[in-house]
Amino acid sequence: MDLFNDFGIFFSTLFSLMSSPSNILLLFGCSFLGIIFGALPGLTATLGVALLTTLTYGMGVNTALIALLGMYVGAIYGGSYPAILINIPGTAAAAATAMDGYPLALKGEGGRALGLTTTASFIGTVIGMIALVMAAPLITGIALQFTSYEFFLLAIFGIVISGTLTSKDLVYKGWIAGLLGLLLACIGRDRLQFFPRFTFDMPELDGGIEVVPVLIGAFGIPQIIKVLRDRIKLSQPKDFGRILPEFSTVLHNMKHIFRSAMIGIGIGTVPGVGEDIAGWVSYGTAKNTSKNPENFGKGEPAGIVSSETANNACIGGALIPLLTLGIPGSPPAAMLLGALMLHGVTPGPMIGLENPSFFIEICAILLLASLAMWINGIFLARQVVKLLQIPTAVFLPIVGVLCVIGSYALGLNIFNLYLMVPIGIVAYFLTEMKYPIAPLVIGVILGPMADENLRRALMVSDGSFMPFFERPVAILLILVIVLTVLTRLPIYQRLKSSIWTRISSKQGQQSEK
Amino acid sequence: MENDKGKLRRDDFKTGILLILLSLGVLWEASTYPMTDSYGGVQNVWYVSPALFPLIIGLLLFILALVLVGNALVFHGWSAVWRDKNVIQTRQGRGDLRFIGVVVFFSAFVYAYIPNVDFFIASVLFLFTFISGYYLERKDVLIINIIFYTLIAGALLLITKITGEPTNHWLTDGLTTFGLFSLFLISQNARNEDETYVKKLRVALLVSILVPAILCPIFKFGLLVPLPSEGIYIELMEQIKYLFRTHS
Hints:
The complex is a heterodimer.
Chain A: H1 2-18, H2 21-39, H3 45-55, H4 61-78, H5 80-85, H6 95-106, H7 110-143, H8 148-166, H9 171-186, E1 188-189, E2 196-197, H10 211-229, H11 247-252, H12 254-269, H13 275-289, H14 301-325, H15 331-342, H16 351-354, H17 358-387, H18 392-411, H19 414-432, H20 438-460, H21 472-488, H22 490-512
Antiparallel strand pairs in A: 1-2
Helix pairs in contact in A: 1-17, 2-3, 2-4, 2-17, 3-4, 3-10, 3-15, 3-18, 4-14, 4-17, 6-7, 6-14, 7-12, 7-14, 7-17, 8-9, 8-20, 8-21, 9-20, 10-18, 10-19, 12-13, 12-14, 13-14, 18-19
Chain B: H1 2-31, E1 38-39, E2 42-43, H2 52-76, H3 78-83, H4 96-116, H5 119-135, H6 139-163, H7 169-189, H8 195-222, H9 232-247
Antiparallel strand pairs in B: 1-2
Organism (chain A): Sedimenticola selenatireducens
Keywords (chain A): Membrane, Transmembrane, Transmembrane helix
Domain DUF112 (chain A): 25-442
């Protein structure tokens, strides 16, 4: 009966949203805008969602979510345009798409490649949506049993895992970025005793640092500096023919699509690890399991389908921890968390109790967003490609003004801008030195949760750490955190290799005997 | 690849030292917070203290920074790290002026223009300086723009310091408008009979005026967001809006 009831809510939400022409216009407009944000190198899905959040300020929650999810889905898909047509991925998520998309465009089949990415992205988003609706109630059910012990460990787990997986150089650079985020989160009056920490007698810092200016500064300004400093120029897009949905090729690659969607959802649920990693892992898996791996990199449709399905399925995956635990699964999801809180919705285990139909409403909006993306992709691709010809030196300063007004408008506070600029410059240097930015942002978001719950937990146990080792979920989280850290330490690597050498030498001796 | 790694490890050494200093600062500052004494009438215990979390972060940051420095020293060797000029001289060379340009434009816009100048004209000048500085692809133009933009920012800060609160918008907006015209004329004089240059300059000016002319009304009248600083131009927009309303 519950299932029928859920279906009823799903379709009624779908029809009520579609019955309003303004909602449809907003959906298609934001989806198109998202594709543009994804397509223009230098702009990202995170920045698009961040800037759009400002404009949704006066809207209702559902209307705002239509705009934001439309932008999010569109931007992740839009990155594939320049990846296919000029071999420069518009977003990091589409980097793997360029591997086979561009060779296909060189063969004069750019339209076919775009058709494949459009349909694969649509299917990926829909499978991600199904995963969200199935997993979210289960996870919230479990999360309702969580106490301060689990929430503290969950926050630490989010930062550790995100730092570990997003670091491109030394693993502890990711952890340092996470700690810097936690440090930023400490600024302001603490929530238990209202004691001012790191405020240096500045009343503007009493309320703490707002997440949105940090996000805009950390993701927007480094991108502007990098593109203008390195003189990144776009070449002329390759000519492409008609864009068709390519259903037959998609059906032929159904095996890759399902596997990639599962990879995308799985990676999406890991805090802070986003669509870019999903795309690469899925591409690599498709290549390793293919009967003709030598075709990859030469315009293999399975390569395009794998990376695009995974990066869009990642959206649904990233929304699972965001909505059920309040932990964003990817950087754009982190921005979405800020936007939800701005609209008075606090994601977490209680959301299912406070608003039982919330997950289903989100799924309906996600389905509409993917549909709008597909229609925009099939019919308006040529218009988007024209925008690729705008010089970066012209549109990036405009993005700069949007960053400034976006950071200001959310709190109507000039002090947010004073913070945004130094955070942006520091984030640029950190990026240049291969520190990942996602753990820093996750740290800023999860800092208050970690701080508050650690102290509450110790308050309950009168300062004893023993309850952390008496609760099954807490033990599991401790084990995962400890193992994640230990397995990355050089001592562990050396120990592992010496054990392997001993085992193999013993086996060698035995075989000689 | 090896060079990249070598450079990264040198950078790690520098950031490691900075992070050690930062973590020591955090530990020192956190140690001044109430641990077991009373604050606001509440007797503290160590595990509820506001110092607990910053102390943990400071300690972890200190350890990781030490590992970072240690790793850099293992890679290059203690004497090599100190001997190498690159340890002290940071990323010099290609693209530095372009980097400085972006930082100067953003910093001056946020710290000097936005609080003191009408948002519309402040954005127009920011966009024109920024776009023409990079789009025209002339080093001399970028240098002139950086100097010019900084000089006006300095003059604005001086004016607001002398006149005090509230900001005299006739003075600050007037100076910014004068700056925009002067910079346009200077940029036009540097054209050297180059047709592409003139075309690009026109595009820069057009985009610089159009974007704020669209953005300001959207935020001010559409989203009802008051702009950071509203002077003579926003006032003019309001007059135009009322004029339209009266006629309709």
